[in-house]
Structure formats: structure tokens, C-alpha cells
Amino acid sequence: MDVSSMIGRETRSPAERQAEKDHCQNATNKVCANCQKSQSDLPASLKRCAKCQIQAYCSRDCQKEDWKAHKKTCASNQQGKPKATTDFDAMPKQAGDFFKGLVGDDFLHQLPEKDAFVRLIDCYRMRVEDDYKYAGDTRGLYNEENPLPDFQSFLDLAQKRKGLLPKWWSAEKRRECERLAVDGTQWADIGCAVEKQDVIEHYGDGIMPMKLRLLAEKIYAKKIDMGY
After folding, report:
1. 154: which residues sit within 8 A by CB, 6+ positions away?
2. Interhelix angle for 148-160 vs 208-220, to 10°?
3. Cβ distance 191 to 202 under 8 Å?
4. Which H or E run contains 74?
5. All residues at 6 or more sequence positions from 1 whose CB lies less than 8 Å from its CB, including other chains
6. Per-residue H/E/C for 145-206
7. C-alpha 57: how far from its chain's center?
8. Are 105 and 82 in contact (CB under 8 A)?
9. Which SS3 state, helix, strand or coil, does residue 28 take?
10. Closest CA to 135 of 50, 76, 22
């Protein structure tokens, strides 16, 4: 028996041991990390945590229930994976200054009304996707609920940000924006998930996801929660 390797196991921290357990448990992708139901007992394939791509779940409910425990090891599981960031001060100064100047408070003012509606909707969709992917925050669409109330809360915040919305914005214009958001026949649909690549392809603009993230930061008054 290799005694040195045995000692190594015993001296690792509880978090490190749990991370290895999580990895081994889900490597074969056969059981839900929360309810422990096996793949053979489930009607659909297990889904992996969008953040670390290791922990597997049978449903969003199970993922939500397990997040408090899983978030302790999720960050270590995703070491080396790309992260969403708007920490421009950590970038070389020229690049950081460029990105900081992408979205001013008048960003929406420069657009036709419908385009401004679409940017707001896509800003919301992108932030909900990021919060789910990077922080395990399941709300709105990702909580399998009507996303409109959550979108309305987003618009409430936008209205509180002085000078962010165009001068033509009104209660009626807000209702138009909400109707467009739930139309279901348009690109900007809060009932449909959207990812970074979808946004790039739709707008033909490689930095549009960054613009939408910056706009979301102005509205939510906080950066993306990386969950750690």
C-alpha cells in the first residue's frame, strides 16, 4: 500500500475532498447530485451545471436545492475555464479605457425607439443568462416561471437610473417594450434563452455582448456575480 498517497488524502481540506467526490460522482453522469436518482430512472438526460460543467442534475429544482452546498466547490471545479468579466481595471490600460467608453449613459438615446426596446430586452436576457451561468441564479425563464415580472423589475431599476432612458420614454412606451418582450414571434423574446454567440451572430457585432453587459451593470448597479 502506498502510505504517502494515503497520508496525502487525509491531509486535504474538506472542500478539496468534496470537490473530488463531486467530480467522481458526476464523471460518469449517472446520478443527480441532489436527489441521487439514477439516469436509468429518469425520462430525460441529466444536465450539467452550466458554470463548472461537472455537477449533474435531473431538474432545475434539484440544482436550486443543491446550489448552497455546490457553490462551495463550483468555483474550484471551473478553474481554468473562461469567465465573464467587466473588470477593466485589471486589463492593460488602453484596452480597459476602450471598453469603459463603449456604453455611455446616452447609449439608448442614440437609437430609434424599437431598437432601444430591443437593446433593453437583450440586455436583460444576457444578464439573466450570465447570472445563471456564472452564479447559479435561477430566476425568470431559468426558474421555469413567467419571466415578465422579473423583466418588469428590471425596467423599474432602469427607470430609476437618471438619464439612462431616452427622453421619449413614458408609461405607454414601457408597455410597448413589455409587449415586444413577450411577443414570441420576434428575436427579442424574454421567453427564449440567449447566449453570447447568439448575440454576436444576430447583431454582426463581436463586442455587442460586452455592450449589453455594461448596460446591465448600469441598470443593476453591480457587476456579474461570479458566485465566489
Report:
1. 124, 127, 219, 220
2. 70
3. no
4. helix 60-77
5. none
6. CCCHHHHHHHHHHHHHCCCCCCCCCCHHHHHHHHHHHCCCCCCCCCCCCCCHHHHHHHHCCC
7. 18
8. no
9. coil
10. 50
CA max distance for the chain = 76
Per-residue confidence (pLDDT) for residue 215, from 0 to 100: 93
Find cell 455592450 and name the residue.
211
- pLDDT tens-digit readout, 51-99: 677 888 888 778 878 877 887 676 556 555 555 555 555 555 655 555 5
Give the whole-angstrom CA distance, residue 164 versus residue 156.
12
Sign of the alpha-carbon torsion through 176, 182, 187, 192: positive
Main-chain phi, psi angles of 168, to 5 degrees? -80, -5
CA 88 to chain centroid:
19
Which residue spans within 23-163 are E strands per DSSP? 47-48, 56-57
Cα distance between residue 217 and residue 84, in whole Å: 13
The pLDDT confidence band at residue 25, using thresholds 50, 70 and 90, is: very low
Phi, psi of 207 (to 5 degrees): -105, 10
pTM over 0.70: no
